[in-house]
């Protein structure tokens, strides 16, 4: 017996193909959730590895240097390394729950709080664009029904029952206009029916990407971007280059020039294709940006930023690709494919309850779109106050403070206005005490032993094997196999004011691991070379004394002859 056709099914049945392709796909949100969870998992594991350096109170990022403003910062309440470690484990658990779709709404909110807390904790120190984008994506994921598709929540709700018996007239939560019903192959049933229409709020993630690309493209006004040398120049920066792809690509300047201009145009206009109601245009947008960021990830080391961008673009996956993905899973991994279910909302509630729920959902979505447009306007205001038409709104209603509390400020700097011109590496020396290494002894520096503290693994360490020299025969720092272990260590030493926290951290680390020898102070040397020149210059970047008694000695150490 045929099901009665309601108003919703009658409308969707008469939708033209153009209108039916307007909505994004729920399964794309499921892929987005899995990808965002995987990228966050990589980020959390890095923070666990370097917890003592980045998150502990006595690390390289002291709490006094943080920029205030966000609504939450759980790490400010942590006064011991053990409590920080517990928070990281809680974050790891929340990411795993979010990734696999278990208590998806709650775990997504917890992940957003942790992402915002970490961004605030690392601000003005080792933060980078990936921290900001991660916080933004988790916030906009709160408006998405991520637990309805390809998740443990959906599997538990629907069990192992087939979706054939689900009425075709049902509405999906948070979806204003249900799309035409999909009919996909199934190993047991010929034509199971399900609604894969994503809610209108899914466009919030695409609008976030559009805001990011428009912001960065409008600030790439430097000479290297306009002349086409930006990509080639960046590939010669050893602190960014990922070998061997960077060296191979740098052999073809004409191709690098083409990539420079292509990057500008793709960032400025390419995202528009994702908003067109055509599967081909969204496939083209996904392919372009996936190729752009995957290529950047192969040739450059910029942390987890590329992973978060790639996860966000999964939202634009067209229906044809998702159908193909499901078909392949059904063919090669049928047991795993049984988990790929889409939860449907029962038709039980009365008309009054459905109307109330629809009103709440509509208000919730309007809030999301209001916030994203405020964020876009604030980004425009930050770039150029005179050309932003919404400047009075941002100023009069205090929208900027609200966005700051929610960590939604659009501040993206992807090699703009120009990429750096100098390749940079560092070496950290520690000066050890001895009976003759003290002020008052003639030529006391000849008796001061020096150890190298920047390990060949790309981060400062007191546990690795160190070469002992004296100050008078200290040689220029040689190249290490790895200059920076992660993107955050590079961010730490990029500017002198950021690297000041390195002194106190290494002094405390030395006292904990080398108690027989006293560390008097630290000396940070910056080694740089400006493209296209190859010759390196050596600069004494910072001196730090571990105690007030060692201050005079560290200041009186004579300069090395190989310094520029």
Please describe the topology of this protein:
Blueprint: H1 7-13, H2 17-20, H3 26-49, H4 51-54, H5 81-100, H6 104-121, H7 129-141, H8 152-158, E1 182-183, E2 193-194, H9 203-219, H10 223-227, H11 230-235, H12 245-250, H13 253-269, H14 279-299, H15 305-313, H16 319-332, H17 334-337, H18 351-383, H19 391-396, H20 399-405, E3 422-432, E4 449-452, E5 468-470, H21 487-494, H22 496-499, H23 501-513, E6 519-530, E7 537-545, H24 551-556
Antiparallel strand pairs: 1-2, 3-4, 3-6, 4-5, 6-7
Helix pairs in contact: 3-5, 3-15, 5-6, 6-7, 7-15, 9-13, 9-18, 14-15
Structure description:
- The chain is of the alpha+beta class.
- It has a domain at about 420-555.
- Helix content is about 50%, strand content about 10%.
- The chain has 24 helices and seven strands.
- The chain has a five-stranded antiparallel beta sheet.
- Strand 6 and strand 7 form a beta hairpin.
- Helix 5 crosses helix 6 (about 105-120).
- The protein is globular.
Proportion of strand residues:
5-15%
Structural class: alpha+beta
Q: Mind describing the biggest β-sheet?
A: 5 strands, antiparallel
Oligomer: single chain
Q: In angstroms, what is the radius of gyration?
A: 28 Å
Q: How many beta-strand runs?
A: 7
Overall mean pLDDT: 83
Unreliable runs, pLDDT <50, ≥5 residues?
1-16, 160-193
How are the strands of the biggest sheet laid out side by side?
5-4-3-6-7
Shape: globular
Gap from first CA to last CA: 88 Å
Q: Please give the share of residues in helix.
A: 40-55%
Helices, by number, come to 24
């Amino acid at each position: 017996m045929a099901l009665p056709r309601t108003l919703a099914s009658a409308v969707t049945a008469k939708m033209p193909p153009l209108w039916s392709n307007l909505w994004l796909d729920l399964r794309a949100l499921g892929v987005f959730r899995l990808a965002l969870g995987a990228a966050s998992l990589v980020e959390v594991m890095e923070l666990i590895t370097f917890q003592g350096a980045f998150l502990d109170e006595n690390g390289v990022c002291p709490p006094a240097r943080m920029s205030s403003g966000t609504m939450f910062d759980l790490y400010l309440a942590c006064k011991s390394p053990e409590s920080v470690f517990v928070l990281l484990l809680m974050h790891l658990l929340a990411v795993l729950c979010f990734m696999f779709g278990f208590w998806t709404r709650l775990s997504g909110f917890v992940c957003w709080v942790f992402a915002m807390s970490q961004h605030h904790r690392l601000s003005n120190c080792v933060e980078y664009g990936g921290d900001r984008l991660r916080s933004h994506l988790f916030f906009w994921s709160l408006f998405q029904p991520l637990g309805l598709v390809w998740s443990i929540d959906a599997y538990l709700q629907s069990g192992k029952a087939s979706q054939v018996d689900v009425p075709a007239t049902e509405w999906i939560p948070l979806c204003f206009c249900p799309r035409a019903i999909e009919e996909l192959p199934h190993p047991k049933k010929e034509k199971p029916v399900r609604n894969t229409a994503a809610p209108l709020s899914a466009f919030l993630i695409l609008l976030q990407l559009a805001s990011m690309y428009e912001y960065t493209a409008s600030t790439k006004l430097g000479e290297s971007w306009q002349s086409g040398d930006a990509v080639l120049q960046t590939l010669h920066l050893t602190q960014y280059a990922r070998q061997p792809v960077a060296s191979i690509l740098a052999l073809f300047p004409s191709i690098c020039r083409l990539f420079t201009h292509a990057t500008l145009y793709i960032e400025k206009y390419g995202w528009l294709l994702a908003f067109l109601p055509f599967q081909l245009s969204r496939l083209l947008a996904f392919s372009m940006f996936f190729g752009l960021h995957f290529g950047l990830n192969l040739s450059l080391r910029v942390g987890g930023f590329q992973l978060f961008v790639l996860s966000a673009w999964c939202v634009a996956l067209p229906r044809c690709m998702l159908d193909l993905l499901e078909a392949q899973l059904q063919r090669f991994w049928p047991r795993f494919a049984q988990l790929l279910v889409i939860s449907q909302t029962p038709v039980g509630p009365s008309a009054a309850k459905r109307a109330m729920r629809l009103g709440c959902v509509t208000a919730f979505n309007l809030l999301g779109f209001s916030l994203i447009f405020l964020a876009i306007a604030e980004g425009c205001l930050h770039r150029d106050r005179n050309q932003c038409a919404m400047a009075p709104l941002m100023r009069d209603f205090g929208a900027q403070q609200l966005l700051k509390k929610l960590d939604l400020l659009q501040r993206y700097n992807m090699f703009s206005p120009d990429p750096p011109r100098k390749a940079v590496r560092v070496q950290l020396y520690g000066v050890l005490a001895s009976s003759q290494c003290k002020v008052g002894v003639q030529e006391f520096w000849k008796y001061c032993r020096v150890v190298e503290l920047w390990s060949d693994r790309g981060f400062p360490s007191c546990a690795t094997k160190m070469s002992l020299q004296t100050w008078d025969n200290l040689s220029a720092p040689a190249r290490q196999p790895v200059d920076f272990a992660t993107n955050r260590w590079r961010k730490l030493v990029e500017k002198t004011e950021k690297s000041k926290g390195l002194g106190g951290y290494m002094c405390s680390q030395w006292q904990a691991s080398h108690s027989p020898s006293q560390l008097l102070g630290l000396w940070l040397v910056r080694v740089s070379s400006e493209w296209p020149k190859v010759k390196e210059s050596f600069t004494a970047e910072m001196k730090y004394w571990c105690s007030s008694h060692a201050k005079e000695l560290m200041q009186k150490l004579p300069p090395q002859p190989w310094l520029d």
